[in-house]
Amino acid sequence: MLNRVFTAITAVSLTACAFSPVDVPPVEKHAPKVVLSQLQGVTVEQGMDAARSALQSSGYEVGAYTPELGEVKTKPRQLQVPEWCDCGTWNGSVVQGTADSIMTVVVKPDGDSRVSVAAQHSCANIFFGRNLYGVVTVQQPVQCASRGTVEREFVQKLEAIAKVRAVK
Hints:
single chain, 168 residues, alpha+beta, Alpha-D-Glucose-1,6-Bisphosphate, Chain A, domain 4, two-stranded antiparallel sheet, 3 helices, elongated
């Protein structure tokens, strides 16, 4: 009898962990959702071109370039988790693997020969949790929290490129 109770308790505890959801952090845990920068001495067109160059320099491929909206969007790029993005924990272990990283940049006029640039980085993956036998027991889409490294790198490159291209 005691053996059956122990087996039942063990089975319940194993399956409860195997089916638990990912503990996902808030998207803004490590970095703001939107990073702003102001560029002096450039037009909107020059700002957009600088943004495109900064994204490509960081390894992104531009998916959409829409001058009428002042918008540049990238195609997804694979980044390592948890180094670049925090996708949370599952059963006490840090989620690892890769995530799709997408950058969206909006460039708008902000006074005479000055533009403001808003950059948003999103990181997401589909988490597959496996039980002790390697069987997938949890499949969950996860919106991860950026660690802020992508945004800092983008702003540094953007400002350096814009400075070189600024109207004298």
